[in-house]
Every structure is written in C-alpha cells, then in structure tokens.
Amino acid sequence: MDRKNNINVGIILVLLSSAFSACASPAAAATATPQPSATVTATPEVPTATPTPAGCQEMQGHFEYQEIQTTLMTHPLSLRVYLPVCYDPDGEYEYPVLYFLHGQSFTDDQWDRLGADETLDRLILAGEVAPFIIVMPKESDYMSNQWDSKYGPALAEELTVWIDEHYPTCADRICRAIGGLSRGAAWAMRSGLIYWETFGSIGAHSLAPFRGDFNEAPFWFKEIPEEQLPRIWIDVGVLDVNLDAANTFEVRLTKYRIPHEWHIYLGTHNEDYWQAHVEEYLRWYAESWKERMKS
After folding, report:
1. Please, is 255 exposed, middle or buried when counting C-beta atoms within 10 Å of its C-beta (0-12, 13-18, 19+)?
2. CB of 123 within 8 A of CB of 129?
C-alpha cells in the first residue's frame, strides 16, 4: 500500500481548477504561512529513563478497555487504551499520550482497524519514534451538535486527568496530542484550541469543521499566548466532499497568523485514504517527543 500519495497540489489544482476553484493553498504538503510552526518554549526536562526496557522480547503492544463515568456526561465514556510494545508500567519513563478520535458513525475501534497500533509498534521497534500511549475514546451520541454535546469537554477536562492518574504518563501539555478524522478531526481542532493548556499538538485528518466554528475560532486564537500556540496539522483528500470547508478553516488560520501545516493529497473521504496515511500521522505526532528517545 502506498503510504504517501503526496503529489504536487499545484498540478492537482490546475487539473481540477474548475471543480475546486475555492482552494486557496497553492501547494500540497506545504506549511502554511506564517513560518515556522509554533514552538512551545516551556519544554519539560527529558527523562533519563530508558523508554524500552532492556531485554524486552515483545513484538506488539496490547489494548486495555476502560469505561469511566464523568461528571459532564450522563452516560459512561467508553475507551480503549493502546499500550505500546514493551510498555513498562513500573519503570521511570513517562509516556506521552495521543488522544485519537474516530469519525461519525464509527466507534473507538476505528484507528485500531486502520492499523495505528501495529504501525506504532513497528516504528518503536525500529527506533524511529519514542514510545507513546494511544487513547481511543468512543463518542456514543455522535448526532449532537458541538454546543450541546459534552464529549469534547469531558475528554479535555476529565479523561486526560483520569489517564494521568492511571498510567505512567508525562502530564505536561507538550506530551499530549489530540487528533481525529472527519467529525473526530472537528472535535480535535475545537478541543485543542479551546483547551490549549491541555494539548500541545492538534491533528485534523479530513477535517469536517463544525458549523459555527469558523466564526468562533478567532476568539480562541486570541486566548492563546503566542509562545504557547499548539502544533497544528490539517490534511484532506483532493476529492473529499469537505475540501472546501477544510480550506475555509485553513484560511482562517492563515489570516490570523496561526502556524500550521496544510496538506492536500490524492484521495477522498474514506478509510482507504486514512489508512494510507496512518504512519505519516503517527510520525508527525511523535515529532514533538523525539528528544525523549534514549540516544
């Protein structure tokens, strides 16, 4: 499977200009201005613990299935937690955490089916990324709008605290990322910007922004100190039905000079597209944590 279907979007937009004239970005996989991407200055000390225990013979990690009752939601929050290969709950290493959100009408098994767990293990065993935990929460009421639903606030205000209390995590914002696909991408973007003190990176894959978030976003931007701006990634397929909406949100980021990466690839709004880019996504999230690898 071709993992990176990167092509020159300049060519794509010329070929498809009649269909996608609203797309303002001139090139795919380009970091949108202003450059460079935001860098958090308050970086915690790099732990001296070895990420992978010596003598570990494991070839894959494992899932734990949890259900917690939050104070914000009327029903329990179900989730699966992927603990990576050679996970050591008793060691001194503090694991970064990726909160990975599924799309509308799917469940917390989506990133599992797309191969996020196997891909992460392979990258860890190859010494290419530092070990981290993936939390995959389930949105049960996926028809609610973003104002009525308590899913996003529960993730940021309660689930992150619960995870830090029950797993050996690095509890600094730079060690937390939130990402998702489709509706999950909308939640990731909204929650990551509103709760900027909680998350250091935001990944929006096939972003389908919530209606109204275009207008709210400038108010979120103003609340974030410049030196605390999160890393932001947006990608979308050139044939995605949400391309124009994603582009409009990207234009908002550019207008307000919020550093981000903006990628347009071949593909549409489906699991084949997301599966093809899983490794690229995980590498991007892990980029913030590469200094945590033992040299």
Report:
1. exposed
2. yes
Q: Which two tokens stand for residue 140?
A: 């049960």
**Structure-token pair, residue 79:** 């989730």
**Average pLDDT of the residues in 21-42:** 39
| Residue 277, burial from CB neighbour count under 10 angstroms (0-12, 13-18, 19+) | buried
CATH code of the domain containing 284: 3.40.50.1820
**pTM to 2 decimals?**
0.82
- Please give the structure tokens belonging to residue 196: 């900027």
Structural domains in the chain (count): 1
235 bridge partner residues: 205, 263
Whether the pLDDT of residue 159 is over 60: the answer is: yes
Distance, CA of 78 to CA of 256 (rounded, Å): 36
Q: Is the pLDDT of residue 9 over 60?
A: no
Expressed as residue numbers, the domain containing 121 is: 62-292
Q: Which residues pair with 159 in a beta bridge?
A: none
